[in-house]
Amino acid sequence: MTPSQMPKMILSFHDGWDELIRIHPSISRMFALVVLPFSLLPPAMIYYAGGNYGDVFAAGVSPGQWHTSAAIFFIAELLTVPLMAWLMHLVSRANNVTTGYHLCFTLAAIAPVPLWISSLVLFVPNLAIGVAVGGLALLCSLGLTYRGVYALLRMHDDVRALQMATVITGAGLLAWLLLMQIVLMH
What we know:
Number of helices: 8
Distance between the termini: 37 Å
Radius of gyration: 17 Å
């Protein structure tokens, strides 16, 4: 799987997914090559935007508070990925889908990539644009989750895969909102 395959993975059950299944990267490899580098983007952008034009997003918050929020956000992101993998594993078992934690972690590492990349919109000091790009990223993340549930967990029922993806995405959205709250509270 290459980064250029990511857009195809949003729309396809096979492009990128088949190669990912064939390669079967370890959890540590997924963490080192996907989770760690991509999860650095939002805190770096929060640090940058908060320090340069933080009042556009939250009036009266000092650059120091933005910088603290960025650090807390980064730690929370790193904890959220294995937590989401655990949740996916529970949802799989509840739906009588036999899968291991490894495949759930792989999906938990890939699904938030559009959200992580969308943080680059913070180079533009405009809340409306940020919300629009974030919404699009969320839709892409949902696409990755649905296609990933189907492909990685070897589902053959579209409706069941969509049901599982909806539950997983709902929990992921809640986690993302909690992460955003962390940023706004500090």
